[in-house]
Amino acid sequence: RASRRAGTYEVLTELCSRYAASPAFRVCVGHATTVFLLRPDDIGAVLSSTRFATKSSLYSALEPLIGSGLAILAGEDYRRHRKAVTPSLHLDVLKEFAPVFYKHGQVLADSLAARDGSVLDVVSLCGDCANAAICETVMTTDVADDDLGRQGFLAAIPEANKHFMFRLSRPWFLGEWAFKLSGRYAAYLDTKRALDDFTERIIREKKSRLVAASTGTPPCAAPSTTRPPGGRLAFLDHVLCSAEGAALGDDELAAEVKTLVAIASGSSMDTLSLFLQTIAIRQDIQEAIWKEVTDVVGEDASRALSAADLQRLQYTERVFKEVLRFYSVVPLFARRSPEDVRLPSGVLVPRGCHVALWLPHVHRCAEHFQDPDEFDPDRFLPERARGRHPYAFLAFSAGPRSCVGQRYALHFLKAVAAALVLRLRFAVPAGGPSRPQDVPLLLNLTTCVRGGAKVLVRVRPPRPPPPGLPPRPTTPREGQGVH
């Protein structure tokens, strides 16, 4: 029996361990039954099947806030939206985002360097970095940082996640009529208004610009008239410039923008903070990342970072994949069974029940990961990953509903990591965890560090020049915050 004080994370992990010898177990809450799957073959049968393409009704609390986007849609609407969205996250598009990601990583590095020698909880700072970068690359590149609508939108993103978790952890508030009676409903409406107003304004402005520039040809046939002053298009611009995207209504466009922002925001914040917590513990990994970054871009933090540079940061990418495996940042997937389905293990999934995957269990399976409780980025080397079950690592889901933003996420994370390790060192403060296994975890919408990700931040001193060479001049950015 789990401790009365155990949280959802501990309870689900304990249940998966208790029933690990079985292919599945079920949890009943009221009239709702959820079947948790434990075997990759069964998981693959669910994630690869169009019969399980409908998300669990547990996600319904998201819909009033972010609309009916890819996180919620099913069937033909889902396929139509995915066809409109996916090309706008192609590698050719992401090339334009690399400098933006790096710029926001440098802003985060500035903020941390100004607190040189301090012990900081980096979660909110990582969140600010992620939100600003996501807003600029997904929505618009030509809105000032002090724009009130933008500020309200950024402030509303974490609040939206809190409202969703509040309702998800209290099933009696999943119904809209009951939630209206709660003390949080007024704040919920304020959050919804901030998300809606800014999104609708940006869509309206971009459509007006495209109409003004259009001469009967596809809107992006005249890029000089549709591109913002900086010359860079955001995700929304690319969607509007495609025939499939242009066919989406304003509500559909708004839903996709808010879906991408909301999902990317929390997962990026917690992945970054868990990454910093981990490299503070594992100094060997931190220095290996620094060596890779300096080998690729040199030690000049003011140098521009390109998408080609990011492609070369293979060790850094393996570290982030291991962060996503080890901590299972997005820990829970759920679908709804439309009919009685017999899975490969023989488990019968009854019609109408929820089917769930608890990734902290899936990702720690010794059958598919050697020494699964050890933090080892090299388990993602091609030669070691070869032959691994395709449904053993599900950080970005899999099958027809896999995450469309996987490359976007990895580009963002690697760019910010490069900006940080070039200028800063991270260490564990006194009394902090000595191993990644000791980091206490908490389930919100994503997995985060219980009590905050606290690290000691130091400005990285410049490396002494080789004998016979003059000292390398310090760039203005490197000097900021050093006392």
Automatic annotation (TrEMBL):
Q: Which UniProt keywords apply?
A: Heme, Iron, Metal-binding, Monooxygenase, Oxidoreductase
Note whether DNA repair occurs among the keywords: no
Identify the stretch(es) annotated as Disordered.
459-483
Gene3D superfamilies given in the database record: Cytochrome P450
Residues binding heme: C403
List compositional bias (Pro residues) regions by residue number. 462-474
PROSITE patterns in UniProt: CYTOCHROME_P450 (PS00086)
User: A Pfam family matched by this chain, by name?
Assistant: p450
MF (Gene Ontology): heme binding; iron ion binding; monooxygenase activity; oxidoreductase activity, acting on paired donors, with incorporation or reduction of molecular oxygen
Cofactor(s) needed for function: heme
Protein family membership: Belongs to the cytochrome P450 family.
| The protein's name in its UniProt record | Cytochrome P450 4C1-like
What gene makes this protein? LOC113213146
